[in-house]
């Protein structure tokens, strides 16, 4: 399975077909170097936000989910 097929399968990203005309797209490059990606995003005026800046998520709000003494619903 190609990486393009995996992206489609896991993230529902269709990158093998043109969104405008529906024709098959030929992938000519894969940029993986973080420094190059950062330069391209900066040039395009897009920000690359690292995952470390994401707010942490708290525990589930349902107290009955983990509490064995709570009454069943």
Keywords:
73 residues; mainly alpha; 0% strand
Task: Write up what this structure looks like.
- By secondary structure, the protein is an all-alpha fold.
- The chain has a domain at 1-47.
- Helix content is 27%, strand content 0%.
- It contains 2 helices and no strands.
- The chain has helices at 3-11, 34-44.
- The longest helix has 11 residues, at 34-44.
- The radius of gyration is 21 Å and the shape is extended.
- The mean pLDDT is 77.
Q: Which word captures the global form?
A: extended
Instruction: Give the DSSP E fraction (strand runs of 2 or more residues).
Output: under 5%
Measured between the Cα atoms of the first and last residue, the distance is: 45 Å
The helix count comes to 2
Low-confidence sequence ranges? none
Strand tally is 0
- Counting helices, strands and paired strands, the structural category is mainly alpha
For the sheet with most strands, the description reads:
none
SSE string: HH
Q: Rg from C-alpha positions?
A: 21 Å
Write a concise synopsis of the structure shown.
Helix content is 27%, strand content 0%. With 73 residues, it is mainly α.
Task: Provide the fold topology.
Blueprint: H1 3-11, H2 34-44
């Amino acid at each position: 399975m190609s990486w393009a097929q995996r992206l489609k399968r896991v993230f529902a990203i269709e990158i093998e077909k043109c969104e405008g005309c529906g024709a098959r797209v030929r992938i000519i490059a894969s940029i993986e170097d973080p420094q190059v990606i950062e330069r391209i995003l900066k040039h395009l005026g897009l920000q690359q936000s690292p995952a470390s800046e994401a707010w942490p998520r708290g525990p589930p709000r349902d107290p009955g989910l983990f509490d064995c003494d709570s009454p069943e619903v």
